[in-house]
Amino acid sequence: MDGTRIDNGTGDNYCWSVNYENRRICALQGSSVNISTIYSHPHNQQPTSKYWYKIRRRGEGETEVMMNAAGRVKCYDNMGRHILEIKHLQKNDSALYTFKVQRFDGKWKQSDFAGVTLVATGLRVKFSPAVVMEGECETVTCSTSCPLSGNTTYMWYLNGRLLPQSQNKHLVLDPAGTQHAGRYSWAVRNGKKDTSSREKTLIVLSVTKEQASSAGAGVAAAFLVLIFLSVVCWIRKKRASSQSPEIEASENTEPFQ
């Protein structure tokens, strides 16, 4: 479309308008998304062409015209809206999408806004800390590339079994115990099916009574060693200070002739 004339709404173009319903969309990889624009035109002047454009980030390629692709991409009108539908979202679908409509005189109409930013995110499990000692606090978090909607319901799984009492983004284990060790994953409801993350294993280091007693004995032994060394140093300094006057006196005494 190089060399096309763009009209943003000046002059006799006041009846032509393009607006986006959402300027930023966060969607799950594998799901479907509708990117929608509302456009208007004079009743006696029908648009000759309508296109969605995919604008990649710098260094990722040129602008791409979104065309219908069987099973994945579809462009259609619906009650004054022109909708770009993308199914089975992939990571490389993340981009800026903009809509342009061509007037009867060859000019192109677009919105004053840049377009709609789409972020296709995956699901990941994050541990903090990565390895936890028994009795310490562990936080397991649902991690995404962009914030999901506020009414998202989170489902946590441990070793493939649902944890029904946990429906928040953060799963707090305080205190963590050996029963919390295992493979964690989480999922969100996506239409009629769930989208799940990969499993990630949490390691909980066990502290037995014998280990705790040994650790306590080790600390006590180290403390006694420090006390012993301090006493030895004090005795040495005391001896050195008591001997120094005698040495000085012997050095200042001349032999009797």
TrEMBL record:
Lineage of producing organism:
Eukaryota, Metazoa, Chordata, Craniata, Vertebrata
Gene3D superfamilies for this protein: Immunoglobulins (2.60.40.10)
Is this entry keyworded Ribosomal protein?
no
Any idea what this protein is called? Sialoadhesin
InterPro entries found in the cross-reference section: Ig-like_dom (IPR007110), Ig-like_dom_sf (IPR036179), Ig-like_fold (IPR013783), Ig_sub (IPR003599)
Q: Give the organism, scientific name.
A: Channa argus (Northern snakehead)
What Pfam families is this protein classified in? Ig_2
Keywords of the record = Membrane, Transmembrane, Transmembrane helix
**Annotated TM spans:** 215-235
Coiled-coil portions: none
Q: The organism sits in which domain of life? A: Eukaryota
- Residues in Ig-like domain copies: 114-203
